Amino acid sequence: MSSVAVLGALSFFPAIVFFRRDMARKEGVTLPPLSDALVERCTTIINAEISGLIFIPLFASLMARGVFYVNDFPWAIGVALYA
């Protein structure tokens, strides 16, 4: 579940950049091209998201097989994390 949250957080920055530019374009504002640094940052973030998508099925299959399952984990601590 945390990997899905990380992917959601990663997609926030590029989405805001694209939505702001789209709204400005719809209002008729002429936009300068994106700076190289911003393009590089968005490209890096999107590549990290794509790489992260590969790990979600991997983590799911490991969880289904019980890999790294700790039987001695106190249930009260697990419940307190969600309370």
Characterization of the model:
The chain has 83 residues and is mostly helical. 75% of the residues lie in helices and 0% in strands. It is built from 4 helices and no strands. The protein has helices spanning 2-10, 12-26, 36-65, 75-82. The chain is elongated.
Question: Could you write a compact summary of the structure shown?
Answer:
This protein is mainly alpha-helical.
Keywords, separated by commas or semicolons:
83 residues; mainly alpha
Parts with pLDDT < 50 across at least 5 consecutive residues = none
Tally of individual helices: 4
Distance between the termini: 17 Å
Structural class: mainly alpha
Tell me what portion of residues adopts beta-strand conformation: under 5%
**Which descriptor suits the 3D outline?**
elongated
Order of helices and strands: HHHH
Largest sheet: none
Mean pLDDT: 86
